[in-house]
Amino acid sequence: MTDFFKGIEPVKYEGPETTNPLAYRHYNPDEVILGKRMEDHLRFAVAYWHSFAWEGTDPFGGRTFERPWFDGGMDAATVKADVAFDLFALLGVPFFCFHDADVRPEGESFAESKSRLDAIADVFEKKMAETGVKLLWGTANLSSNRRFMSGAATNPDPDVFAYTAATIKANMDVTMRLGGANYVLWGGREGYETLLNTRLGQELDQMARMLSMVVDYKHKIGFKGTILVEPKPQEPTKHQYDYDVATVYGFLRRYGLEDEVKVNIEVGHAFLAGHTFEHELALAAALGIFGSIDMNRNDYQSGWDTDQFPNNAQETTLAYYHILKAGGFGTGGTNFDSKLRRQSVDPVDLLHGHIGGMDTCARGLKAAAAIIEDGTYDAFLNERYKDWQGAEAQAMLKGDRSLEEIAARVEHEGINPPLRSGRQEFLENLINRFV
């Protein structure tokens, strides 16, 4: 252990009555929920970037955090790795996630950056073997460096496209080497600021070509993990091409990739797109592309992505209900794409943020499981749609009736449907019984 978290003991489950701020009140990794350990349901991961690379900046102020690895080279990157694995051990999380730019300093050339990434992978490999912590997913930062100011795969300069391809390959290689369960593509600047200088169709074709090459390379190297695309509607561009789950699905279908790629859905991005998180989860499940989640929240009074730790048990209940109904996580998990507030400058604040988030998710999971076990909610949904199981309804749904035939039946039988209550208030009260 390093001295960064000096004096802090590993966080343990102490139950709902504890007042210990460095203990779990609800997250008990060995508790069995619907036949599976809680740890195996939730599959928590710490995000390397927000926890160790973010400096506490905002659009109106500079760095507030002081970390011993800031402004350093490879030695500092190794110190950062030491501290990161200390945090993983203190929290008892099974996974972590990273971007390349967060774990190694940028080199003077692509070759130097790749060499540095490989060197940090050596460090990770050793620490993962020592601790048992695994890699949920790796990804490449294709937005921060100014070379990506006009996009990465969608850039008008083919040399930037080529640099992007090389960067993704290097990160996929490291992800596979470290046994990563997934590889994520987040199009940080894959969008446009203005249509005045944009050929939208051209850029979509470029993005599809890059994704197709990623899928081809996955199969070539035998990577068994899942390729994930992370939807986001805006920030930093005016309009992102991966706006939301529906947009991503349409893109995948157009280019024949819907059976190869799934989505990593973030709470904050769902809200920026004008959706609830559970909407995006339910839609991804219905379309067969649900993969993994980034768990955080936005400030409802801010119009931007604040990446705060989750603290609303009702929201996480609805989220995990849809995740459980979708069959749970396969290769995915719950990654905390969450960062401290810029005033939370102490090392222990990293513990508090993750403890609160993990407890909130655990409460949501247990409540969601209780809703499923109780059965009242699912019974209501079954009752509401049961008439679609009738012979005539199935004939309409399966295409065995034409528009003219349906219209003739309505006229002949004098069909005049009565109103049926959606019972929203009853359902809201029902869900609140379990939270």
TrEMBL record:
InterPro entries: Xyl_isomerase-like_sf, Xylose_isom_bac, Xylose_isomerase. Its EC number is 5.3.1.5. The active site is at residues 99, 102. Its cofactor is Mg(2+). It catalyses: alpha-D-xylose = alpha-D-xylulofuranose. GO terms for cellular component: cytoplasm. Mg(2+) 2 binds at residues 266, 269, 305, 307. Mg(2+) 1 binds at residues 230, 266, 294, 337. GO terms for molecular function: magnesium ion binding; xylose isomerase activity. It is found in: Cytoplasm. The keyword Zinc-finger does not apply. It is an enzyme of class 5 (isomerase). GO terms for biological process: D-xylose metabolic process. Keywords: Carbohydrate metabolism, Cytoplasm, Isomerase, Magnesium, Metal-binding, Xylose metabolism. Binds 2 magnesium ions per subunit. The keyword Metal-binding applies. Belongs to the xylose isomerase family. Homotetramer. This is Xylose isomerase. The gene is xylA.
